[in-house]
Amino acid sequence: MTTNTFVAGTGWLYRFDPRAKLLLMVLMCVWFFLPVSLIELSTVVILVVLVGLYNAGWKLVVRTFLSILPMLIFMVIFSPFNVRTGSPLIQIKSFTLITEQGLEQALRLMSRFIGITYVCTLLFATTPMHEVMLALRWYRLPYRASLVVTLAFTYIPFISDSFSQISESHRLREADDETKKRFFTRLKDLLPTLTSALVVALRSIPNLAMSLELRGFGLENRRTSFHDLSSYPYTFTHFVVSCMIPLALWFGRSIF
Amino acid sequence: MQANRNALKVAVIAVLTAVVVVFTMIVRIPTAKGYLNLCDVAIMFIAFTFGPWSAFIAAGLGTALADLISGYAQWAPISFVVHGLEGLLVALIVMKKGDEPVSIFRKALAAVVCVATVSLGYFALSALFISTVSVAAAELPGNIAQSAVGFALGLAVSAAVKRAYPPVSSLAW
Residue B38 and which of A75, A232, B1, B70 are 20 to 30 A apart at CA? Predict the structure, then answer.
């Protein structure tokens, strides 16, 4: 099971300070909800996709698009019928099927959805997870919260492997073909596997708690960290750029 | 002593969060329209066994992390709120007072609250922030089925785990 969202690369987004990148992500998500025209919105979305293409490569761009494709299809099918006002675009006798406003709203929603998806994906694809955690701690995320997330990421592969092994061994004991079973039979057969996997996971809790105590968790001493974000020397400049990008896109709309 | 208890709390939440992520991403049951994931099974198990705060944090954080890892980062805040609330409310309803078992009425109420929180939560937040009312409504049946199956399985798994690993009660806080 892959839990790493980072895609190796050398683009400018990789050299951007993660703290400033987090701010930029939030500001861009807000930007997509501002009252802008469809053309302006689509242009910014195309710019974001191009930034992704340049920095993280076409594979990530295509993969991300494919992951949201079902949702986009839903939007194309359902959204235009939702808006009944405006000039009719497609009519069957006296019944208006799609209006101009309906189509515009569907396209607006799709653009916004694609934009937010790519902005969020690019942050996690161009920043290693431990740097995201360091950036969040810089924004005053409590130490315990970041410790929980880090430990959870460590335990996901362990629990996932345990689950796969237990699942395989349970399957070996069964004579029936899995695919021929009815839905409820399959659900019922899943119970022993889920129970065993949970027991394996729960048994690791006392050991983890003990190792945390042995490493001094809960003591009053100030926490030290092996990793830091000092490899990003232009933090202030990057923060300024993060604020400038959404502002430039807002005030530069007349160019579009 | 307090430090020991805090270490146990962190360990419990971290492992339970990982459990929710694995149940969301790995365990998938094919259906006619796609897949059902079992995040609700893990959430119900935690709510029935570990109490409201563990359920809130592990459910919210676990599903949000699963969304981030799977490439659905835009859903992460919504999943955090909806599933966190689901775990919290169900755990509050089925919270034990002493040794008396949870009544059928409270279990039924918890089931209704579980299904309602997931389906209406996703419907409202998705319609508000991501799509439209009609698009969000199209996802209602899937969410209802997933949370209902999740509740039933979670209840069964919770009882089975308590029988198979009795020390689990000492881990709750």
Answer: A75
Give the DSSP H or E segment for B161: helix B140-164
Q: Which two tokens stand for residue A110?
A: 């799709």
Size of interface A-B (CB pairs under 8 A): 181
Domain that holds residue B14: 2-171
pTM of the full structure: 0.81
Domains in chain A: boundaries: 12-127+232-255, 140-214
* Beta-bridge partner residues of B28: B37
Alpha-carbon distance B130 to nearest alpha carbon in chain A (angstroms): 6
Six-digit token string for B45: 């198990």
Domain with residue B48: its CATH number is: 1.10.1760.20
Partner residue opposite A78 with nearest CB, options B69, B138, B153: B138
What are the tens digits of pLDDT across the range A11-54?
Answer: 899 999 999 999 999 999 999 988 899 999 999 999 999 999 99
Give the per-residue pLDDT at B33: 47
Cα A253 from Cα B119, distance rounded (Å): 39
Contacts 24+ apart (CB under 8 A), A32-39: A32/A111, A32/A112, A32/A115, A32/A116, A32/A119, A33/A112, A34/A250, A36/A250, A36/A253, A37/A253, A38/A104, A38/A107, A38/A108, A38/A111, A39/A256
Q: Which pLDDT score, from 0 to 100, does residue B121 have? A: 94
Token pair listed for B96? 């034990």
> What average pLDDT does chain B have?
87
pLDDT of B70 above 70: yes
- The DSSP result for A141-176, as a single string, is --HHHHHHHHHHHHHHHHHHHHHHHHHHHHHHT--S
Tokens matching residue A63: 């993969």
Using CB atoms, which residue from A81, A123, A217 is nearest to B7?
A217
Complex confidence, ipTM: 0.89
Contact A5 B72 (CB under 8 A): no
pLDDT at A223 over 90: no
